[in-house]
Amino acid sequence: MSSSYRLTIILAVILLGIGGYVYFVDVPASEQAIQVKQENRKLIPFDDRHITQLTLKTAKEHITFDRGERGRWLITTPLTAPADGREVRKILRALTLGKIERVIQEQATDIKQYGLEPPHMTVTVTDEEQTLTLDLGNPGPFSSSLYVRKDNSVVLTTLDVLTFAKKNLYTFRLKDVLFFNHAQVEQLELQSQDQKTVLYRVPGVHGISPSWQFEQPIEGPADKTTVGILLMALEDLKAEKFVDTETEKLALRQSLGKPVATAVMKTGKHMHPVSFYQNAEQTYALTSPEKPLYLVHSQIVKEVSKGLFGLRDKRLLGIPVDELTIVRITTPKETYGLINQNETWLWEEDPATPLNQKVVKLLVSRLADLPAEHRIAKEETALDQYGLAQPTFSIVATDQRGQERGRLRIGNADHGLVYATGAGLPGIVQARSTILTQIPALEQLIEHAHDRE
Questions:
Q1: In the 8-state DSSP scheme, what is residue 372?
Q2: How far apart are CA 408 and CA 221, in angstroms?
Q3: Residue 273 near residue 267 (C-beta atoms within 8 A)
Q4: Overall domain count for the chain
Q5: Residue 345, domain extent
Q6: CATH code: domain of residue 195
Q7: 340 and 305 belong to one structural domain
Q8: Tens of pLDDT along 312-346?
Q9: Rounded CA separation 85/53 (Å)
Q10: Is the pTM of the predicted complex or chain greater than 0.70?
Q11: What is the tens place of the pLDDT at every residue in 172-185?
């Protein structure tokens, strides 16, 4: 073996040894050192999922939160009330993710310059094993940096002052007034100063969406969209202020008098009542004598007090489009009938003449879904005054059993609206005048050769 070859082998063994040392000894040691350094940078050594208590103390307030059943947070000082879990979690997440950028003073003596004498806020965090207290001072020299005193040392952290600034008891209180799911409401009872209304949920057509029916003061369909919006408004009702003490509640209720409106939602075996009180400037809600009086937005009273006309189904024809079998239309120039036969519309006088199905179905749906915009009179009187004694358009509709259930008369136009009467809604109403241009002549419904092309 030549000397040069032997030297090459020796160098290779040396390199392998160095590589093995770096791979098996030096690199793990370096990684461990980095890991220790990162661990030391943690502001608090807690897992936020295991934190059981949080206390925030400022010059004006002292708030304590305790984690209750199912992980829900409860305010226990200065009162007992449900906490807004989202706001509490924001604080805990900021603390558990916060890092120490550098140590400013290990044994802090001159702390006033860092806003720590006194601190702006003192935070105390407790988990299942230990308690840790942090004093929060002034913002640091960089964005998202804050001076903190921890274990008598002043450290510069990655905390953001905005996470803690301007937070008070109201911030952390749960502001929901009612606790129900609008999709699970089976019955809705509304009471205004002059009328009681009771509605109940019924399955929707083909089970797609539920419908609502009146039980009181009339029997008949309600406007499911309007009822749905009302239920969501009640579900989302938020408190703008809380009146907690019995003395304040009693004095305020005596000054407010009787409720101006009430709503009761039934979900399964549970009832969710709320009463609304008003004075000249404010609206308050009360769900039970034990709960606070909630200051709420006044608009909710208008929603609850819509009344019968506001909540009922305002489609004028009075028969759903999927139940229509025969529609007879009278215009200023002609009268013609349309028959629904196995989802195909035919001309009643000459079924062999093909009709443009797209145009006919659009016409039928417009007639069936035409809603009233305003009520003019509760009774159908003085029809001549509104052009309804001899209407511009007249529509009569029959269902699958041959019963005449739909009726619609359209009279004079006035400022973008048209006077009308219909089987679906008693009295005289106004609808949008666009319907006057959406009822075509028979000739426009007939499918010609160029239509098929």
A1: P
A2: 17
A3: no
A4: 3
A5: 321-452
A6: 3.30.1490
A7: no
A8: 999 999 999 999 999 999 999 999 999 999 999 99
A9: 13
A10: yes
A11: 999 999 999 999 99
